[in-house]
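Figure 3 (text version): structure tokens given as input.
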């Protein structure tokens, strides 16, 4: 992953508070089911390893279940975004984002909305990212890179994720 810059001044505390105080959609149990061959492949890979679709690994937020609108001073072109909240004990199996396989020129960005806390884990390919600050913006060097996350700490972990693409 490549560090871009810090946008702490852009992340509003009221957004963080709303995510902390809202449930979101528990994924995968309360989320949408796979709607593409690529997504089904990732779900099956997790099932084969013993993960269960009936469990909640993290909570997801997007423009349909938050009260705020996000406009990015650091992103241009077509994009979609989502926020993940991991409570202590939550995790996200290692995976490749399926949409990056069929969206032209897809690029992935990752921005924590809190300073790093012990136990907040993000792994991209063979690197674990720690000691990050609220608002740090990272770009995946390979949008199809294998990645996953876990929260073995004592506080919620909130991250904004963005995918850009060509139409």
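Below: residues designed for each position.
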């Amino acid at each position: 992953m490549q560090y871009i810059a810090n946008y702490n001044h852009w992340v509003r505390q009221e957004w963080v508070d709303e995510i902390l105080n809202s449930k979101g959609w528990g994924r995968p149990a309360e989320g949408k089911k796979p709607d593409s061959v690529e997504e089904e492949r990732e779900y099956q890979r997790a099932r084969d390893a013993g993960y269960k679709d009936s469990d909640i690994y993290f909570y997801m937020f997007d423009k349909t279940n938050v009260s705020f609108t996000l406009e990015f001073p650091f992103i241009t072109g077509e994009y979609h975004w989502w926020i993940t909240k991991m409570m202590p004990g939550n995790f996200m199996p290692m995976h490749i984002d399926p949409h990056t396989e069929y969206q032209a020129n897809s690029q992935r960005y990752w921005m924590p909305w809190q300073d790093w806390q012990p136990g907040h884990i993000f792994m991209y390919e063979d690197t674990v990212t720690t000691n990050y600050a609220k608002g740090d913006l990272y770009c995946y060097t390979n949008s199809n890179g294998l990645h996953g996350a876990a929260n073995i700490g004592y506080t919620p972990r909130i991250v904004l994720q963005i995918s850009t693409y060509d139409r």
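The chain has a mean pLDDT of 90.
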